[in-house]
Design goal:
alpha+beta; Trna Endonuclease, Chain: A, domain 1; two-stranded antiparallel ribbon; 1 helix; 14% helix; globular
């Protein structure tokens, strides 16, 4: 699959998910401003969303998304991460971090401290 098509798969999955729960979605005419979707929340707040699609885990238990190019741009409110092998989405508020690491499985050493779980971000954050 071509790289552009991989990203489009994630964007379509996120759009479908958000529309199915009643959000209004707006799509920028051009894809040069690091914003894939504009989401109008039920509260009337507008959120700018960047969609990232992952096809494999970085480790045996978690995935990692590089977010360095969005730091201090003010363009991204939410990073929507679509994990294609399991057809699941995490909506992570963007806090100018260099990367986002989310666990999908328990670590081999059962460590939980400091781990962020993919499933903790399954709902779109309207109020952040």
């Amino acid at each position: 699959m071509l790289s552009g098509n991989k990203g489009k798969v994630g964007e379509l999955a996120v759009r479908k998910d958000l529309v199915s729960v009643g959000y209004n979605i707006y799509i920028p005419e051009v894809d040069t401003a690091q914003v894939d979707l504009i989401v109008e929340c039920h509260t009337g707040i507008i959120k700018k969303v960047q969609v990232k699609t992952a096809y494999k885990l970085k480790t045996e238990t978690s995935l990692e998304i590089d977010t360095r190019k969005y730091i201090d741009t003010g363009r991204v409110d939410i990073i929507a991460i679509y994990y294609q092998p399991e057809d699941i989405i995490a909506y992570v508020p963007f806090e100018n971090n260099r990367s986002i690491s989310l666990a999908l499985r328990t670590a081999l050493n059962n460590q939980n401290e400091g781990r962020k779980w993919f499933y903790s971000y399954s709902r779109f954050p309207e109020f952040s």
